[in-house]
Design goal:
single chain; 182 residues; alpha+beta; five-stranded mixed sheet; 17% helix; C-JID; C-JID domain-containing protein; leucine-rich repeat; repeat
Length: 182
């Protein structure tokens, strides 16, 4: 059974050529097969997906990313509609990072899953990574954000940079929302 999800996902493009260390699962190429861990009472909110990609500089069309997720344990495949990516012409590799909510695919503890990134011949995917985001992580992050806002006036630059990095790396929300820290 293949389902097409009408919702869209968004993401952020940054220069880079390595999947960040915090990503639970990493693989070379455009696909990654992994088994989810035992959730131990946690609720999976979704997953952050990160790819290392290079643009086909000779092609002028809009760069696009589609994601296909197959759950071998439950026997279904879902495809997520393409998202347009604004990638500057460059010979350098870039990172694209986006979030997909578990509301769409209802992954469970110990499900065996394959995620495939399809750039429809507009980019080459060199590496793929997945970071699992749990509701409990979000609650801790929101609590930390509340503390950060109280401490901002007296915070050092290092603490602000660390808070920005934590928000960027762990937030399952639209990543652009995390760029508002001054």
């Amino acid at each position: 059974m293949v389902l097409f999800v009408q919702g869209c996902f968004s993401g952020l493009v940054l220069p880079g050529n390595e999947i960040p260390a915090l990503f639970n699962y990493k693989n070379e190429g455009a696909s990654i097969l992994f088994k989810l861990p035992e959730f131990d009472g946690r609720n999976l909110n979704g997953m952050n997906v990160c790819i290392v990609c290079s643009s086909h500089l000779e092609k002028e069309e809009t760069k696009q990313i589609r994601i296909k997720l197959t759950n071998y344990t439950k026997g279904f495949t879902k495809k997520f509609r393409a998202v347009a990516v604004n990638l500057v012409k460059s010979c350098e590799d870039h990172l694209w990072q986006g979030h997909i909510s578990n509301n769409f695919f209802k992954l469970g503890s110990e499900d065996e899953v394959e995620l495939i990134v399809d750039c429809m011949n507009t980019m080459t995917v060199k590496k793929t990574g997945v970071y699992l985001v749990y509701e409990q992580d979000e609650a801790r992050l929101k609590a930390k954000r509340g503390l950060d806002s109280d401490d901002r006036a007296g915070s050092s630059c290092d603490n602000l940079l660390q808070a920005k990095r934590l928000r960027m790396e762990t937030s399952p929300l639209n990543i652009e929302e995390n760029m508002d820290v001054a």
